[in-house]
Amino acid sequence: MLKRQNYHRLGPDYRSGEQVSFNDIKEVFGLNHIRLGSWVETEEKHKAANLIFDAFADLAFILKLPPKAIGLRQSLNLAFGTGGQVGVQAHYMPAHRELALAKNAGAGALAHEFWHAFDHYIATKAYHISTRGIAFASSCWLSDMKPIVHPLNLRLEGLFKTCLLSEDGQEGHDFVGRAVALDKQYGRNYFSKPTELMARAFEACIEIHPDISNPYLVNETLDSELAKAGGYPDERHRRQIFQQLLNYFEPLGEALGRE
């Protein structure tokens, strides 16, 4: 069974209190495929479907996107309860374009992993990728890869700059400096990767939304050991990043809505 019984979500009632299915999730949010683990029981499948539906709906609401945009043009796959690594809440597998949620530990990681999926998806739309393999837009930006000229791509670069550079644009932001310090502390190159910096910044902004609180979507960017160690943007920086998120995703949603 899902370990936490109550997630104390605050937000709109998108389902009118009704039970939804994983097929509803696939159709409403435009996903390509959903894979369920063979050991997911009926009761926990129903509970998880409601939690994931609300989380995706909250994410679309916050970013001002049409719900079907969450599926990244039907390229995103979802897995629930299919195994994974011990202690890992969720992960994104770029080779399969699959966002996987662990049955008993997936809560709180969905926003973080969705950013990874988006970062991967948008790379080939935002940059002239010259090498084979898996690319992420945030890494392309940091590598000064040639951008594809488009007004939305300029806004995406503005998001990266706000998140990762100082206000004068001449140095790395203090958020980046703290991540480098964390990497030195733990002896590995992880926290300061552009993909991870952006994913933590993204989920941190989602968690401070004034009208929605959903611990299944995002949790612990405000009060956790990593938060206390400076692993997330501070309050002022979050507000700046969130404004850039809306500056990018709102017109993206309007463009998708016209299709």
Which features does this protein show?
259 residues; alpha/beta; 2 domains; four-stranded mixed sheet; 9 helices; 4 strands; 46% helix
Q: Can you walk through the features of this model?
A:
The protein has a four-stranded mixed beta sheet, covered by helices on one side. It starts with 21 loop residues before the first helix and ends with a helix. The chain is an alpha/beta fold. The chain is globular and about 55 Å long. Helix 3 crosses helix 7, helix 5 packs antiparallel against helix 9 and helix 7 (194-207) crosses helix 9 (235-257). It folds into two domains: 22-116; 119-257, no CATH class. The chain has nine helices and four strands; from the N terminus they run H-E-H-E-E-E-H-H-H-H-H-H-H.
Low-confidence stretches: none
How many strand segments?
4
Q: Helical segment tally?
A: 9
Radius of gyration: 18 Å
Q: What percentage of residues falls in helices of 4 or more residues?
A: 40-55%
Q: Whole-number average pLDDT? A: 92
Distance between the termini: 41 Å
Shape summary: globular
Give the total of domains: 2
Structural class: alpha/beta
Spatial ordering of strands, largest sheet: 1-2-4-3
Strand count, sense and closure of the main sheet?
4 strands, mixed
Proportion of residues in β-strands: 5-15%
SSE order in H/E notation?
A: HEHEEEHHHHHHH
